[in-house]
Task: inverse folding
């Protein structure tokens, strides 16, 4: 499935395209149905992605070779 | 007398003087101290005034766009420092100061330094809108360049997580005040670019005094922001604080919290958008299906228009009708001809010599076969043939008789 590779942004753009196509109403029924299915799948996937997302926060430190090292972000304010 | 000297038009002379003034480095970026007089604001929004000291005066104009940024109301008699460039107004043949900022007397050196750096960087094009990069609508990773202590970073992380938890937040801790702050901030911006750490940078700090915010008025920070390939949101202090970083950045946020709101979409809005897509596609699908159903029904009702055999049937009927008409016409012509034939045949029959002969008459023919119609044609001894209805007889003329 190619839609697995779409980013969230691309998914929204594709959804917009799909809905516009469907709303024009000039597609053969078979094409409409497969677009509708694709759209429903994208909507479900985007919703799941948002529901399951957990914010990642890291603190960056310059490693010995200058390359970035990720450290857990601890609350310096506490 | 004037043979060797070119004669200029007034316009040419004024243009020449203007190009001389415009080429002068000092005049293109000056600070002038003086007293405001004749201050007028025109309906166009431009400000006109005269700057004077005890011995001299200077005509000044401040265009609407610059005047809009004034933080105080200029009044006649005020001692001020004015920033801008000197050029010629060709219509009047007068030079004047095209003013981009006015500062009341008594503000500190920092403010003057700020205005001067702003003028300089603006002239270099560091604030050009055309250089500003669009922000990614759904950033994957945001580099936050600020102090790891303080409320600002926590506010930002909280708001980012609340609005759009899919974005990873990478903190690059830096000092945000003191002499080390500007090189650290500028270095972190360059570092984020070098290792492509994020697709969006937020740099800034919470509110404070002008001195506290000063790192974000540093030229090194401004140049690092300008050079960043990753879009930068500047988020310094509170709403009214404006720093050089704010001018250079791709987007200015009024506070760090506001930067977090600008940086990512609100998941509630996106969920709402997804719901609207769901509803719209459902409605569109429903509409198409019901339209198809409706059309199908109308096809059922209007068989003649849509069923191809119906039109063939019609043609067949019309063909049959034509054939009938053709046959009838043929019949009419034939029977007419037949009647005519019968009439002619009976007329012919009535006139037939055979019919006459059958009533007992005979026809005389001479030797050549011609019909003898008169006795005067005949001579005694001549041969005649008499024809009867059923045969004939050869005879010889004996005697001619006169007609009676």
Result:
């Amino acid at each position: 499935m190619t839609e697995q590779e779409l980013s969230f942004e691309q998914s929204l753009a594709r959804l917009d395209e799909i809905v516009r196509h469907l709303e024009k109403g000039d597609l053969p029924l078979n094409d409409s149905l497969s677009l509708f299915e694709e759209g429903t799948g994208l909507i479900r996937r985007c919703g799941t992605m948002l529901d399951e997302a957990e914010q990642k926060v890291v603190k960056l430190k310059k490693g010995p070779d200058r390359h970035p090292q990720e450290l857990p972000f601890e609350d310096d304010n506490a | 007398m004037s043979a060797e000297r070119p004669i200029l038009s007034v316009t040419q002379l004024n243009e020449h003087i203007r190009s001389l003034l415009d080429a002068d480095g000092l005049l293109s970026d000056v600070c002038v101290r003086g007293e405001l007089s004749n201050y007028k604001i025109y309906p166009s929004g431009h400000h006109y005034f005269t700057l004077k000291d005890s011995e001299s005066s200077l005509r000044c104009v401040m265009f609407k766009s610059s005047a809009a940024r004034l933080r105080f109301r200029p009044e006649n008699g005020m001692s001020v420092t004015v920033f801008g460039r000197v050029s010629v107004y060709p219509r009047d043949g007068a030079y004047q100061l095209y003013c981009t900022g006015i500062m009341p007397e008594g503000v500190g050196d920092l403010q003057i330094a700020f205005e001067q750096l702003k003028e300089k960087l603006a002239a270099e094009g560091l604030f050009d809108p055309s250089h500003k990069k669009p922000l990614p609508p759904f950033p994957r990773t945001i580099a936050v360049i600020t102090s790891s202590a303080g409320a600002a970073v926590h506010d930002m992380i909280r708001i980012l997580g609340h609005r759009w938890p899919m974005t990873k937040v990478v903190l690059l801790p830096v000092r945000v005040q003191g002499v080390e702050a500007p090189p650290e901030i500028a270095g972190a911006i360059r570092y984020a670019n070098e290792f492509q750490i994020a697709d969006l940078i937020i740099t800034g700090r919470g509110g404070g005094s002008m001195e506290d915010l000063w790192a974000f008025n540093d030229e090194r920070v401004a140049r690092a922001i300008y050079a960043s390939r990753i879009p930068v949101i500047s988020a310094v202090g509170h709403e009214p604080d404006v720093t050089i970083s704010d001018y250079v950045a791709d987007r200015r946020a009024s506070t760090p919290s506001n930067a977090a709101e600008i940086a990512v979409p609100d998941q509630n809005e996106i969920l709402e958008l997804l719901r609207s897509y769901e509803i719209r596609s459902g409605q569109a699908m429903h509409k198409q299906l019901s339209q198809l159903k409706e059309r199908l029904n109308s096809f059922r009702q209007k068989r003649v228009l849509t069923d191809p055999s119906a039109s063939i049937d019609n043609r067949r009927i019309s063909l049959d009708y034509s054939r009938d008409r053709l046959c009838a016409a043929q019949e009419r012509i034939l029977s007419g001809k037949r009647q005519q034939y019968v009439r002619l045949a009976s007329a012919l029959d009535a006139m037939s010599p055979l019919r006459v002969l059958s009533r007992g008459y005979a026809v005389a023919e001479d030797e050549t076969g011609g019909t003898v119609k008169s006795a005067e044609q005949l001579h005694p001894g001549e041969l005649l043939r008499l024809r009867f209805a059923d045969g004939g007889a050869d005879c010889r003329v004996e005697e001619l008789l006169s007609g009676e």
Q: What stands out?
A: Residues 29-52 of chain A form the longest helix (24 residues). The helical segments of chain A are 8-24, 29-52.
